[in-house]
Write a structure and sequence with these properties.
Blueprint (H helix, E strand, L loop, with lengths): L2 H19 L2 H5 L11 H5 L7 E5 L2 E2 L3 E2 L6 H8 L5 E5 L9 H7 L6 E4 L5 H9 L4 E5 L5 H13 L3 E6 L14 E5 L11 H6 L8 E5 L5 H10 L3 E4 L1 H4 L4 H16 L1
Parallel strand pairs: 1-4, 1-10, 4-5, 5-6, 6-7, 7-8, 8-9, 9-10
Antiparallel strand pairs: 2-3
Helix pairs in contact: 4-5, 4-11, 6-7, 9-11
Protein backbone atom coordinates (compact mmCIF):
# COMPACT_ATOMS: atom_id res chain seq x y z
CA UNK A 1 0.00 0.00 0.00
CA UNK A 2 1.13 3.57 -0.62
CA UNK A 3 1.08 6.08 2.26
CA UNK A 4 -2.39 7.41 1.42
CA UNK A 5 -3.88 3.92 1.40
CA UNK A 6 -2.14 3.15 4.69
CA UNK A 7 -3.51 6.31 6.30
CA UNK A 8 -7.07 5.64 5.09
CA UNK A 9 -7.00 2.04 6.29
CA UNK A 10 -5.85 3.16 9.74
CA UNK A 11 -8.39 5.99 9.78
CA UNK A 12 -11.29 3.58 9.28
CA UNK A 13 -10.17 1.51 12.27
CA UNK A 14 -9.72 4.67 14.32
CA UNK A 15 -13.25 5.88 13.52
CA UNK A 16 -14.74 2.51 14.47
CA UNK A 17 -13.12 2.82 17.89
CA UNK A 18 -14.19 6.44 18.26
CA UNK A 19 -17.82 5.58 17.57
CA UNK A 20 -17.77 3.22 20.54
CA UNK A 21 -16.56 6.01 22.80
CA UNK A 22 -18.76 8.85 21.55
CA UNK A 23 -22.04 8.36 19.70
CA UNK A 24 -23.39 10.82 17.15
CA UNK A 25 -25.97 11.81 19.76
CA UNK A 26 -23.08 12.67 22.09
CA UNK A 27 -21.47 14.83 19.43
CA UNK A 28 -24.73 16.67 18.76
CA UNK A 29 -24.98 17.72 22.42
CA UNK A 30 -21.47 19.26 22.45
CA UNK A 31 -21.36 22.92 23.44
CA UNK A 32 -19.92 24.03 20.08
CA UNK A 33 -22.25 22.00 17.90
CA UNK A 34 -24.82 24.79 17.53
CA UNK A 35 -22.40 27.70 17.17
CA UNK A 36 -22.67 29.91 14.10
CA UNK A 37 -19.76 29.14 11.83
CA UNK A 38 -17.41 31.67 10.25
CA UNK A 39 -17.15 31.87 6.46
CA UNK A 40 -13.73 31.15 4.99
CA UNK A 41 -15.03 32.46 1.67
CA UNK A 42 -15.77 35.82 3.26
CA UNK A 43 -12.32 35.95 4.86
CA UNK A 44 -10.54 34.97 1.62
CA UNK A 45 -12.31 37.77 -0.24
CA UNK A 46 -11.45 40.30 2.50
CA UNK A 47 -8.68 42.41 0.96
CA UNK A 48 -7.39 43.45 4.39
CA UNK A 49 -6.26 39.86 4.91
CA UNK A 50 -3.58 37.86 3.14
CA UNK A 51 -5.37 34.89 1.57
CA UNK A 52 -3.09 32.64 3.60
CA UNK A 53 -4.58 29.62 5.36
CA UNK A 54 -1.85 28.98 7.92
CA UNK A 55 -1.49 25.48 9.30
CA UNK A 56 -0.66 24.05 12.70
CA UNK A 57 1.11 20.74 12.11
CA UNK A 58 3.44 18.82 14.43
CA UNK A 59 4.74 16.18 12.05
CA UNK A 60 4.13 14.47 8.70
CA UNK A 61 4.84 11.04 7.21
CA UNK A 62 7.34 12.54 4.77
CA UNK A 63 9.22 14.88 7.14
CA UNK A 64 8.83 13.25 10.53
CA UNK A 65 8.69 15.67 13.47
CA UNK A 66 8.34 19.28 12.33
CA UNK A 67 7.57 21.09 15.57
CA UNK A 68 6.66 19.43 18.86
CA UNK A 69 7.35 22.48 21.04
CA UNK A 70 5.21 25.42 19.91
CA UNK A 71 1.69 25.21 21.34
CA UNK A 72 -1.42 25.41 19.23
CA UNK A 73 -2.66 28.45 21.16
CA UNK A 74 0.45 30.59 20.69
CA UNK A 75 0.84 29.69 17.03
CA UNK A 76 -2.78 30.07 15.95
CA UNK A 77 -3.23 33.33 17.86
CA UNK A 78 -0.34 34.73 15.83
CA UNK A 79 -1.81 33.36 12.61
CA UNK A 80 -5.18 34.93 13.39
CA UNK A 81 -3.75 38.46 13.16
CA UNK A 82 -3.70 38.44 9.36
CA UNK A 83 -4.37 34.95 8.02
CA UNK A 84 -7.62 34.39 6.15
CA UNK A 85 -8.00 31.01 7.82
CA UNK A 86 -6.33 28.51 10.11
CA UNK A 87 -5.83 24.84 9.27
CA UNK A 88 -5.49 22.38 12.14
CA UNK A 89 -4.31 18.80 11.61
CA UNK A 90 -6.42 16.49 13.76
CA UNK A 91 -4.94 13.16 12.62
CA UNK A 92 -2.90 11.66 15.44
CA UNK A 93 -1.20 8.57 14.06
CA UNK A 94 0.56 10.22 11.11
CA UNK A 95 0.50 13.96 11.88
CA UNK A 96 0.57 14.11 15.69
CA UNK A 97 -2.64 16.11 15.99
CA UNK A 98 -5.97 15.59 17.73
CA UNK A 99 -9.41 17.09 18.17
CA UNK A 100 -8.25 18.98 21.25
CA UNK A 101 -5.89 21.02 19.06
CA UNK A 102 -8.83 22.39 17.12
CA UNK A 103 -10.72 23.11 20.31
CA UNK A 104 -7.73 25.08 21.61
CA UNK A 105 -7.49 26.99 18.33
CA UNK A 106 -11.17 27.92 18.57
CA UNK A 107 -10.33 30.91 20.80
CA UNK A 108 -9.60 32.70 17.50
CA UNK A 109 -12.33 34.45 15.55
CA UNK A 110 -10.95 33.26 12.22
CA UNK A 111 -12.35 30.37 10.14
CA UNK A 112 -10.81 27.02 11.05
CA UNK A 113 -10.35 24.15 8.63
CA UNK A 114 -10.37 20.68 10.10
CA UNK A 115 -7.52 19.02 8.20
CA UNK A 116 -7.95 15.27 8.30
CA UNK A 117 -8.70 12.28 6.12
CA UNK A 118 -12.49 12.31 6.04
CA UNK A 119 -13.82 8.88 5.09
CA UNK A 120 -16.94 8.64 7.25
CA UNK A 121 -19.95 10.91 7.87
CA UNK A 122 -19.19 10.60 11.59
CA UNK A 123 -16.09 12.78 11.16
CA UNK A 124 -18.12 15.60 9.63
CA UNK A 125 -20.51 15.68 12.57
CA UNK A 126 -17.50 15.50 14.88
CA UNK A 127 -15.93 18.45 13.06
CA UNK A 128 -19.00 20.57 13.81
CA UNK A 129 -18.93 19.47 17.45
CA UNK A 130 -15.33 20.61 17.99
CA UNK A 131 -15.74 24.03 16.42
CA UNK A 132 -14.60 23.63 12.81
CA UNK A 133 -15.91 25.99 10.14
CA UNK A 134 -14.63 24.13 7.10
CA UNK A 135 -13.94 20.47 6.33
CA UNK A 136 -11.52 18.94 3.86
CA UNK A 137 -12.58 16.25 1.42
CA UNK A 138 -9.71 14.58 -0.45
CA UNK A 139 -10.72 13.34 -3.88
CA UNK A 140 -7.91 10.79 -3.92
CA UNK A 141 -9.47 8.75 -1.11
CA UNK A 142 -13.19 9.25 -1.86
CA UNK A 143 -15.55 8.27 -4.65
CA UNK A 144 -17.52 10.90 -6.55
CA UNK A 145 -20.66 9.76 -4.72
CA UNK A 146 -18.99 9.96 -1.30
CA UNK A 147 -17.87 13.52 -1.98
CA UNK A 148 -21.41 14.45 -2.96
CA UNK A 149 -22.90 12.84 0.17
CA UNK A 150 -20.32 14.25 2.58
CA UNK A 151 -20.48 17.74 1.07
CA UNK A 152 -24.28 17.80 1.36
CA UNK A 153 -24.07 16.69 5.00
CA UNK A 154 -21.49 19.37 5.78
CA UNK A 155 -23.53 22.11 4.14
CA UNK A 156 -26.57 21.00 6.11
CA UNK A 157 -24.54 21.53 9.28
CA UNK A 158 -23.46 25.01 8.21
CA UNK A 159 -19.91 23.98 7.32
CA UNK A 160 -18.06 25.06 4.18
CA UNK A 161 -16.34 22.41 2.08
CA UNK A 162 -12.86 22.35 0.58
CA UNK A 163 -12.35 19.65 -2.03
CA UNK A 164 -8.71 18.74 -2.56
CA UNK A 165 -7.60 17.48 -5.95
CA UNK A 166 -4.23 16.45 -7.35
CA UNK A 167 -4.84 15.97 -11.07
CA UNK A 168 -7.27 16.64 -13.89
CA UNK A 169 -9.15 13.35 -13.42
CA UNK A 170 -10.19 14.37 -9.90
CA UNK A 171 -12.04 17.43 -11.23
CA UNK A 172 -14.92 14.97 -11.72
CA UNK A 173 -15.40 14.99 -7.92
CA UNK A 174 -16.56 18.62 -7.97
CA UNK A 175 -20.25 19.01 -7.08
CA UNK A 176 -22.67 21.81 -6.24
CA UNK A 177 -22.03 21.74 -2.48
CA UNK A 178 -18.29 22.37 -2.83
CA UNK A 179 -17.18 25.88 -1.82
CA UNK A 180 -13.47 25.69 -2.58
CA UNK A 181 -11.30 23.57 -4.84
CA UNK A 182 -7.82 23.09 -3.46
CA UNK A 183 -5.00 21.93 -5.68
CA UNK A 184 -2.45 20.01 -3.65
CA UNK A 185 0.95 20.44 -5.22
CA UNK A 186 2.17 17.46 -3.21
CA UNK A 187 1.48 14.08 -4.73
CA UNK A 188 0.02 12.12 -1.79
CA UNK A 189 1.33 8.88 -3.22
CA UNK A 190 4.93 9.95 -3.85
CA UNK A 191 5.10 13.18 -1.76
CA UNK A 192 6.87 14.99 -4.62
CA UNK A 193 5.94 18.70 -4.81
CA UNK A 194 5.52 21.06 -7.78
CA UNK A 195 3.44 24.25 -8.06
CA UNK A 196 3.09 23.47 -11.76
CA UNK A 197 0.21 21.24 -10.66
CA UNK A 198 -1.72 24.32 -9.52
CA UNK A 199 -0.84 26.34 -12.59
CA UNK A 200 -1.97 23.55 -14.90
CA UNK A 201 -5.34 23.05 -13.20
CA UNK A 202 -6.45 26.59 -12.30
CA UNK A 203 -8.28 27.24 -15.58
CA UNK A 204 -10.22 23.98 -15.25
CA UNK A 205 -11.74 24.88 -11.87
CA UNK A 206 -15.31 26.33 -12.04
CA UNK A 207 -15.12 30.09 -11.59
CA UNK A 208 -17.87 30.11 -8.97
CA UNK A 209 -15.62 28.14 -6.62
CA UNK A 210 -12.62 29.81 -5.02
CA UNK A 211 -9.34 28.12 -5.90
CA UNK A 212 -6.84 27.37 -3.15
CA UNK A 213 -3.23 26.31 -3.74
CA UNK A 214 -1.83 23.85 -1.23
CA UNK A 215 1.72 22.72 -0.41
CA UNK A 216 5.04 23.80 -1.84
CA UNK A 217 4.54 27.47 -0.93
CA UNK A 218 7.65 28.70 0.84
CA UNK A 219 8.22 32.24 -0.48
CA UNK A 220 6.17 35.30 -1.34
CA UNK A 221 7.07 35.15 -5.03
CA UNK A 222 5.22 31.85 -5.27
CA UNK A 223 2.10 33.44 -3.79
CA UNK A 224 2.33 36.35 -6.25
CA UNK A 225 2.59 33.88 -9.15
CA UNK A 226 -0.35 31.81 -7.89
CA UNK A 227 -2.44 34.92 -7.18
CA UNK A 228 -1.86 36.23 -10.68
CA UNK A 229 -2.93 32.85 -12.03
CA UNK A 230 -6.27 33.16 -10.22
CA UNK A 231 -5.86 31.54 -6.82
CA UNK A 232 -7.59 33.24 -3.89
CA UNK A 233 -6.20 31.10 -1.06
CA UNK A 234 -2.80 29.68 -0.16
CA UNK A 235 -2.56 26.87 2.37
CA UNK A 236 0.86 26.94 4.02
CA UNK A 237 1.89 24.29 6.53
CA UNK A 238 5.41 23.35 7.45
CA UNK A 239 7.02 26.54 6.10
CA UNK A 240 6.10 28.28 9.36
CA UNK A 241 6.01 25.27 11.67
CA UNK A 242 9.57 24.18 10.85
CA UNK A 243 10.97 27.45 12.22
CA UNK A 244 12.03 27.84 15.90
CA UNK A 245 9.21 30.36 16.39
CA UNK A 246 6.33 29.86 13.89
CA UNK A 247 4.65 33.07 15.08
CA UNK A 248 7.66 35.20 14.16
CA UNK A 249 8.17 33.28 10.90
CA UNK A 250 4.55 33.97 9.93
CA UNK A 251 4.77 37.67 10.82
CA UNK A 252 7.96 38.08 8.78
CA UNK A 253 6.42 36.28 5.82
CA UNK A 254 3.33 38.49 5.91
CA UNK A 255 5.48 41.61 6.07
CA UNK A 256 7.43 40.49 2.98
CA UNK A 257 4.18 39.69 1.19
CA UNK A 258 2.69 43.11 1.93
CA UNK A 259 5.86 44.78 0.66
CA UNK A 260 5.83 42.68 -2.49
CA UNK A 261 2.18 43.42 -3.24
CA UNK A 262 2.64 47.11 -2.47
Amino acid sequence: MNILETIVAHKKLEIARQKLLHSIADLETAQLFNRNTLSLKKFLLDETRTGIIAEYKRKSPSKGNINTISTVQEVTMAYAQSASGISVLTDNEFFGGNAADLLHARVNQVPILRKDFMVDAYQIIEAKSIGADVILLIAACLTVQEVKQFAALAKGLGLEVLLEIHNEEELAHICADIDFVGVNNRNLKTFEVSIDTSLQLINKIPTEMLAIAESGISNVDTIVTLHQAGFKGFLIGENFMKEPDPAIAFANFVEKLKTKLG
